[in-house]
Automatic annotation (TrEMBL):
Domain of life where this protein originates: Bacteria
Species: Actinokineospora soli
Pfam families: GerE
Keyword Transcription among record annotations: yes
Residue ranges annotated for the HTH luxR-type domain, each copy included: 43-107
Entry protein name: LuxR C-terminal-related transcriptional regulator
Keywords: DNA-binding, Transcription, Transcription regulation
Length: 107
């Protein structure tokens, strides 16, 4: 436990204000989300706030797909798709899918 606390403290110091949102996002991951992250390259481009999986889901939202459609396409549960979309909206500071679609179109 002491070792775990030490590493958390080091991460907090290194990331500053970015630590708490990142830590909360990690804790909120479902089992499917953890697997997706482990199987992806895990690193977003420096100019992209989304992980590769989140970017993929954002593009599917921009194509007009519902969360159920996304779940079917990516062979994940509908709840996992809901969680991904919610996390993306939160990460980008958006409240609607329309805002996300406009953001994807602008990129």
């Amino acid at each position: 436990m002491i070792r775990h606390t030490r590493y958390l403290d080091q991460a907090r110091a290194a990331l500053g204000a970015a630590f708490e949102p990142a830590f909360a996002a990690g804790r909120a991951l479902t089992d499917d989300g953890v697997a997706d992250l482990a199987l992806s390259d895990g690193a977003a481009r420096s100019d992209d706030p989304l992980t590769p999986r989140e970017a993929e889901i954002a593009r599917l939202v921009a194509q007009g797909m519902t969360n159920r459609d996304i779940a079917s396409r990516l062979v994940i549960s509908p709840r996992t798709a809901d969680t991904h979309v919610g996390n993306i909206l939160k990460k980008l500071g958006f409240t609607t899918r329309v805002q996300l679609v406009a953001w994807v179109a602008a990129r």
